[in-house]
Amino acid sequence: MIMMDKTMSLSSSMEDYLETIFLISEKEGSARVSDIARKLEIAASSVNEVVNKLSKLKLVEQEKYGPVILTKKGKDYARKISCRHKIIKNFLVNILKVEEEIAEKDACLMEHVVSSVTMERLVDFLVNTNSIDLESSCISELFQMTETKGKISPDSIASLNELVVNDSARIVKITAKGKKKKKLLEMGLIPGAHIKVKGKAPLGDPIEINVKGYNLSLRKKEAAEIYVEVE
Q1: How far apart (Å, rounded) are the C-alpha atoms in residues 139 and 126?
Q2: pTM above the 0.70 mark?
Q3: φ, ψ (nearest 5 deg) of residue 168
Q4: Structure confidence by residue, pLDDT tens digits, 194-210
Q5: Backbone torsions φ then ψ of 209, nearest 5 degrees
Q6: How many Å apart are CA 189 and CA 30, to the nearest integer?
Q7: Cβ distance 161 to 224 under 8 Å?
């Protein structure tokens, strides 16, 4: 199961402001108070009040009369809000066949109140039904699927082909590229997924593993490009 990343909690209103600042900045390069007020259809004085609160939380920065700039912490939070919106809208439009305009409004409301458990189940469903593209979607922004950065530590991480029968582990990084990586992702071998080695042929090729209740067979070369944290 994909596990949702835990983050700080803001009110629905403050999340709306943060997401709006993010979307305007992505499109225009920066977000001014007047832009935010126009987008949210509220007074500039109200925007200034919330921006001050967000600034105290270290989510945005603003010099006097200057644009509102998201900090790294603020940008990460805003991306997660935006991603929740996209995933919920995807489900409403493509699975429930809700009209896009209605789905957009409903996603705006649901993104603030949906629980982490429901989001985990929703993403699992979309992944298992091939209703979402793991490589092009924002899932890694929202869930604990991020790959380890920099060098792989030999003390805590091993390649899947190094595991022995009955070893259990959590996938942390996939080094395969292009079509090979896409194939592995489509098999459910995504960062954050838990696997168990069920069997190994002589010389370790192929390797039988279980992921999400399904048994898979991997070539040794494929397993060598999957790095895991042994549990």
Answers
A1: 11
A2: no
A3: -115, 145
A4: 899 998 887 778 899 99
A5: -130, 165
A6: 37
A7: yes
